[in-house]
């Protein structure tokens, strides 16, 4: 990366030191002379895995050190560091913030504005004003039909959601399973609620974002969250501002990586919502590394496009690889005038008059791509609760394939269409139905009707009573690395613990030792059982073997 005075000025801070994620910020002595202090610059230095640094934060692929030096020395110091062959990169630690609010939140009692009345709707008082849940109409094609999708999608596992933000508050309608403060401005530490750290801060951005995704539904209170999730707060900013490397640290933590003194999560979250960003011409390598690590753990990252009315390619992490970038539309389906735009927009979602919670737990309307993104994160969660084994890449592909393009929609502004939750779930369930193979006892086939003969002559240890035959549609394999696979898991086991027991490109094959006490699932995956197309959600029913010869033709 080329450095210039402008790029360093962008990260100039009034701090003399920026701590790594696992130690507290250092403060100047109280008796420092009252003289003008030169602004300092924060740099992120990535080392090779053989390098050792006292302030490094170890990750699976590199060590990272955050240093702060006087602005006048920054360019020369960066050039000096780059001469070390063990240094992979030296990049600005960009200031990061929530996108500027195009309009302040509006607190208003439920039911004041007009909305459709929906059948079997949640009993949360403000649900009537949660427009994203409504089915699209000719007048309002910019909504997402979330209620219908939620009703159709069975919950096979509770989804785990991470929110990187600040402004988290303890409100009765929103429950966090866990959280940690990664901000090097006022952390780190176990306290992540804003009032615990800075009672003077009125920021409640993180509460509003999290409320859209996972506020408690059907509790006669507040708003309805899109999914019933285990919710984790990664506080990576202080009162709405922070440093980009802290965001990278929060992503590592939410992806299950041991990170400093933070308690390591038992397993990665499924989805991370990132409603923040920094003006940057490209995605810094230290942030892309964190995102790549998350993707390797199956974590989907949803990023807000930003509210600067600029091309999204100049805003990070929206311009990073392996994220789904979300622009904002109004109910009319037209792009919001504040939203960043361009062919980097993967999908558009409602970012105007989004009903959620403020820091007092009151129902409020919010504006911005910050609140479009959690609509996408929540809808992705609906799909993941039905197909827990679905990879992040497959989830993104399905979201993109199910979008709508109303007549008024301008693809020159947004490349991706408007989120359609109901279409997403409906298409996926139709795929499952179409892909469902035939699975039956091997001796149930007409050509093997003389079952007794097969049983009496079967080579040990083959047990024909537990031998099943699977016949799949050969056209389901579209690539050379795709295989028909069968997984087995015990009752009560999660899908992540399912054991691969068959993998073949043959459309008809045998599965041995089938036990009716276990659950069997079919999928199209890579040979080792990874990257499964249907998220291990096609359950194979086990028929009785039926050992009589009554079905044989005479």
Walk me through this protein's architecture:
- Helices cover 20% and strands 22% of the residues.
- By secondary structure, the chain is α+β, with helices and mostly antiparallel strands.
- The chain has three domains: 5-93, no CATH class; 132-431, Rossmann fold; 436-540, Immunoglobulin-like (Sandwich).
- The chain has a seven-stranded parallel β-sheet, with helices on both faces.
- A hairpin with an 8-residue loop joins strand 23 and strand 24 (499-504).
- Helix 3 (146-152) runs parallel beside helix 10 (421-435), helix 5 runs parallel beside helix 8 (369-386) and helix 8 packs parallel to helix 10.
- The radius of gyration is 27 Å and the shape is globular.
- The termini are far apart.
- The model is unreliable at 1-32, 51-58, 453-457 and 546-554 (pLDDT under 50).
Number of helical elements:
11
Distance between the termini: 80 Å
Shape: globular
Rg over alpha carbons:
27 Å
- Please identify which CATH superfamily of the largest domain we are dealing with: Peptidase S8/S53 domain
Search tags:
3 domains, Immunoglobulin-like, 554 residues, seven-stranded parallel sheet, alpha+beta, Rossmann fold, 27 strands, five-stranded antiparallel sheet
Write the layout of secondary structure elements.
Layout: H1 5-10, E1 12-13, E2 40-47, E3 57-58, E4 63-70, H2 71-82, E5 87-92, E6 95-97, E7 106-107, H3 146-152, E8 159-165, E9 178-181, H4 194-197, H5 205-214, E10 229-235, E11 237-238, E12 241-243, H6 244-254, E13 271-274, E14 278-279, H7 285-296, E15 300-304, E16 315-316, E17 324-329, E18 347-350, E19 354-357, E20 363-366, H8 369-386, H9 392-401, H10 421-435, E21 438-441, H11 451-457, E22 468-471, E23 483-490, E24 499-504, E25 508-511, E26 518-525, E27 538-540
Parallel strand pairs: 8-10, 8-13, 9-10, 13-15, 15-17, 17-18
Antiparallel strand pairs: 1-2, 2-4, 2-5, 3-4, 6-12, 7-20, 11-12, 14-16, 19-20, 21-22, 22-25, 23-24, 23-26, 26-27
């Amino acid at each position: 990366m080329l450095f210039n005075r402008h790029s360093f000025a962008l990260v100039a801070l009034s701090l003399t030191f920026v701590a790594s994620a696992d130690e507290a910020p250092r403060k100047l002595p109280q008796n420092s002379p009252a003289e003008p202090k030169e602004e300092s610059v924060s740099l992120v230095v990535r080392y090779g895995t053989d390098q050792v640094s006292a302030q490094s934060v170890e990750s699976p692929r590199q060590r990272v050190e955050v240093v702060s030096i006087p602005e006048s020395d920054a360019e020369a110091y960066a050039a000096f560091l780059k001469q070390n062959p063990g240094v992979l990169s030296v990049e600005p630690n960009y200031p990061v913030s929530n996108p500027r609010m195009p309009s302040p939140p509006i607190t208003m009692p439920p039911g004041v504005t007009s909305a459709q009345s929906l059948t079997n709707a949640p009993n949360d008082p403000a649900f009537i004003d949660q427009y994203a849940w409504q089915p699209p109409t000719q007048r309002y094609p910019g909504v997402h039909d979330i209620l219908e999708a939620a009703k159709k999608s069975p919950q096979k596992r509770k989804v785990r959601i991470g929110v990187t933000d600040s402004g988290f508050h303890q409100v009765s309608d929103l429950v966090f399973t866990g959280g940690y403060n990664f901000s090097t401005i006022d952390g780190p530490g176990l306290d992540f609620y804003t009032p615990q750290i800075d009672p003077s801060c009125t920021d409640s951005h993180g509460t509003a974002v999290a409320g859209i995704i996972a506020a408690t539904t059907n509790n006669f209170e507040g708003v309805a969250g899109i999914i019933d999730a285990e919710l984790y707060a990664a506080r990576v900013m202080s009162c709405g501002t922070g440093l980009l490397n802290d965001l990278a640290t929060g992503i590592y933590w939410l992806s299950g990586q041991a990170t400093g003194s933070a308690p390591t999560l038992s397993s990665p979250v499924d989805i991370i919502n990132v409603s923040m960003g920094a003006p940057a011409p490209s995605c810094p390598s230290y942030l892309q590394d964190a995102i790549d690590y998350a993707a390797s753990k199956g974590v989907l990252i949803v990023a807000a496009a930003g509210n600067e009315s600029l091309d999204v390619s100049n805003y990070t992490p929206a311009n990073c690889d392996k994220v789904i970038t979300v622009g904002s539309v109004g109910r009319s389906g037209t792009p919001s005038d504040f939203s960043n735009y361009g062919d980097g927009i993967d999908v558009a979602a409602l970012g105007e008059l989004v009903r959620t919670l403020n820091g007092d737990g009151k129902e409020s309307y919010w504006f911005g791509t910050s609140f479009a993104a959690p609509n996408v994160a929540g809808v992705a969660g609906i799909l993941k609760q039905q197909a827990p084994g679905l990879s992040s890449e497959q989830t993104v592909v399905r979201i993109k394939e199910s979008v709508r393009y109303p007549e008024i929609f301008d693809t020159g502004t947004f490349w991706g269409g408007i989120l359609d939750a109901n279409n997403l779930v409906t298409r996926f369930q139709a795929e499952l139905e179409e892909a469902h193979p035939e699975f039956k006892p091997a001796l149930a086939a007409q050509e093997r009707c003389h079952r007794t003969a097969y049983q009496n002559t079967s080579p040990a240890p083959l047990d024909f009573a537990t031998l099943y035959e699977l016949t799949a549609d050969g056209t389901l394999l579209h690539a050379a690395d795709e295989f028909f696979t069968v997984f087995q898991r015990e009752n009560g086991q999660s899908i992540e613990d399912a054991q691969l027991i068959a993998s073949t490109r043959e459309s008809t094959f045998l599965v041995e030792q089938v036990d009716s006490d276990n659950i069997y699932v079919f999928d199209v995956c890579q040979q080792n059982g990874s990257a499964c197309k249907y998220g291990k959600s096609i359950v194979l029913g086990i028929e009785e073997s039926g050992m009589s010869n009554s079905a044989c033709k005479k």
